[in-house]
């Protein structure tokens, strides 16, 4: 899809608007759309189709399996029987087929029993290489492929997609379709939490975890999705005897947390090409002395900006959010960690949770110490840009009520569904663009050139003066 006439008008409109509103702090987009209910796709939808054949593997998804990007975890579900837990894989054009064996697990949730959930770690892959892989046996063999990232290093370009709070509505399908058709091809997805929204059904109907897995397979089987835990992954339901938080999530989705010295799957780090990515958990303890706090304290000194210039953090609950929804929910974590983010010059923080879009200026709020009264965010060139991208399009619908006036630190906000692309060019520059679902795939409704905080810390959010 290209730029249609309507989209061009729209972009022009936004540009004019931004000029008009700059002196007033941030921009609240004037692009207002009819708010309709977001409806989950019915169970008989095309995207939920079960692959043909007895016990055929379904819900295939991959994620990074180590710190550097030379390993991949392949996961899938066989519904009827254990089946084979072998993955056959080979380099493009190579006749030498390799084999890796995984493990499977099952779980029960209230009166639901899962299929056989397989996880298989493939190691010692070559960088920057296309691999094919196959799961299943006989007539139900299914073949997919992925690309490994380039070797970790400062000047290898790499493009990440950003998706959050996706769910499985017609809007979710549109978000995924837009992401797939983006002219700037995302090579891996940084997913900021809230996957299936199965917990919005009676007894958290876990069949909706299965439908989500089948829906997303068209992307998750071909490029790694880097998982962040959201509140809809907790599935904490003592009223039906389900008291172990994150049970469906941990059985179905893997993260390479041990490789980065973490003790739980919910916080960990990876390197991928030019980026060091830290994933945090809003729903695990992070107070002083807790495992997550201690891990993060030890993680920051390991970041080597000569090797990975770009420092990216993913977390579900945003620290800076000027919508009425989930207002200040991220505050306690901000109080704990924000000074570390500034000290270590994090480039960007991506969050979800709020079902809308927002981008901040570079600001921090770390001067306050309870007695000194210094409690307003100030412009800070060592601080990250905070982006809320919880606009995947789930069943809970859009968050369209905003706090007024728009805080000065908020650069751009709009209640629309969409996704974003963070495209790292080299050690100094990364191009960022947010795409709303109503536009043609090439249209970027909000853009920013990121200047790396370590290598090129010149002001890249000049519209805010505190
Ligand atoms: C594999 O073969 C195809 C067709 O011959 C060719 O276009 C492609 O470049 C080859 N890829 C590699 C990695 O050698
Ligand atoms: C689980 O319980 C619900 C509500 O009691 C019921 O509608 C559903 O059919 C049950 N499912 C199974 C697999 O027993
Ligand atoms: C979901 O999107 C795909 C790709 O655009 C399309 O083929 C499919 O029909 C859509 N399904 C639903 C239920 O909207
Ligand atoms: C950081 O990475 C560079 C490039 O790989 C390497 O030369 C240097 O020794 C590393 N620094 C530390 C402190 O490990
Ligand atoms: C880095 O990328 C930016 C944007 O593409 C470009 O303007 C700049 O010249 C590049 N820097 C180097 C050193 O190549
Ligand atoms: Fe959420």
UniProtKB/TrEMBL annotation:
Signal peptide interval: 1-25
Reactions this protein catalyses: a phosphate monoester + H2O = an alcohol + phosphate
Record keywords: Glycoprotein, Hydrolase, Iron, Metal-binding, Signal, Zinc
Entries under InterPro entries matching the protein: Calcineurin-like_PHP, Metallo-depent_PP-like, MPP_PAP, PAPs-like, PAPs_C, PAPs_N, Purple_acid_Pase-like_N
Domain Purple acid phosphatase C-terminal residues, every copy: 383-440
Domain of life: Eukaryota
UniProt lineage: Eukaryota, Viridiplantae, Streptophyta, Embryophyta, Tracheophyta
Similarity-based family: Belongs to the metallophosphoesterase superfamily. Purple acid phosphatase family.
Start and end residues of each Calcineurin-like phosphoesterase domain: 159-357
Gene Ontology MF, one: acid phosphatase activity
Main enzyme class: hydrolase
Cofactor(s) annotated in UniProt: Zn(2+); Fe cation
Name of the protein in question: Purple acid phosphatase
Domain Purple acid phosphatase N-terminal per the UniProt entry, residue ranges: 57-148
